[in-house]
Structures are given as C-alpha cells and as structure tokens.
Amino acid sequence: MSKNPTLSLKKTLSKIEKTIKESINAKALKPVAEFTIGIVVKRTRLGYGVEKELGERSKFTALSKRYVEDRKVFKGLASTTTAKRSNLTRTGEMLESMEYKVERGEITIFPSRRARKGSSGLTNYDLAGYHAKGNSKLPRRVFNNVSSKEFNQILRFYRKTFGDLLRLRGLIS
To answer: Which residues are 107's β-sheet partners?
Structure first.
C-alpha cells in the first residue's frame, strides 16, 4: 500500500484533465466535425432542412415548374439529384464544399467562401445565405442547422470518440 494514498488520485485526476483537454482540441474534434458535415449533407440531399438550431427537420419547398424545366435541360446537373428534387443540389458544388473550423472546443461548419465555378464572385457561402434568407423568387431553404435528433447522433458519436480517448489513457476499460 502506498504511503500517500492521494498520490494515485492526483495522477488519475491529472490523466482525466489531460484527456478532457485532448477531447476538445482540433485534432480530436475533426472526426466529429466530419461526421456532422456528413449528416447535414445527407439530409439536405434527401430534400430536408432544419429552420432553427435543434429544431425539427422539414421538407424543402417544391421547385417551381419553370425551374424544373430549366434543370431538365441543364447539362451540369449533379448525379446526386433529379430535375424535380428540391435538395439544394443543382451542380452539387455547395454541399461538396462544406468545411469546418474548430476554435476553443467549438465546431463550426459552413460552405466554402471560395468563388463558385463559372460565377462572377458568388461563393457557396453566399449562396447558402441567399437560400437561408429567401425572397419573393427564392423560397427559404435553411439546411445548415442540426436537428435535435441529429444532435443526439452527433453526441453519441462524440461520446464514443471520447470513450476511446479514456480507454487509451487507461481510465476506463
């Protein structure tokens, strides 16, 4: 038996503290960010958006007949959509451009701020903003929020990742 029984507790607390710090650094949160982007992109391609953070997912407004006809003859239509499907995927560029940033343990996901191919300076970030605001010609289509059910999926993924870190440190078996 150790002469100083608090010594092992100090080591354990130190390991826990290091693990917690490691669990919120950019390297550890990268898989969580990529998982979140995957969820948002998949849901959007299926034709659903989320109006407000942790809200319910809802079907996007149907495309206008005129826009469906334009998409039928458009040569660059993405293979992940059809002319009639309202899923924010015409060329696929905006959803394929999704990026993330990790700062102080917080993950932010967003479309790229680089100019779109063949556009006069319009970025995917700008296009997502136009969809989020909507106007008389463009219905609101908010996609870059996470629903409450998606949040629970992400939380389970994070807990698994965090559990792996704890196992690596020998704090749980």
So the answer is: 102
pLDDT at site 70: 96
The band of 28, judged by pLDDT with boundaries at 50, 70 and 90, is confident
The total of structural domains in the chain comes to: 1
Token pair belonging to 81:
């959509």
Report the 10 Å Cβ neighbour count for 145: 17
Nearest-angstrom CA–CA distance, 124 and 3: 63
Mean of per-residue pLDDT scores for the chain: 88
- Does 113 fall in a domain? yes
**0.70 surpassed by pTM:** yes
Phi, psi of 109 (to 5 degrees): -115, 145
- Model confidence over 39-89: pLDDT tens digits? 999 999 999 999 999 999 999 999 999 999 999 999 999 999 999 999 999
What angle is formed at CA 4 by the lines to CA 2 and CA 5, rounded to 5 degrees? 75
User: How big is the chain, counted in residues?
Assistant: 173
Long-range interactions of 6-13: CB distance < 8 A, separation 24+: 12/171
Domain residue limits at 87: 8-168
Helical H segments across the chain, by residue range: 6-23, 26-45, 65-73, 93-96, 124-133, 148-168
Alpha-carbon span 111 to 127, nearest angstrom: 9
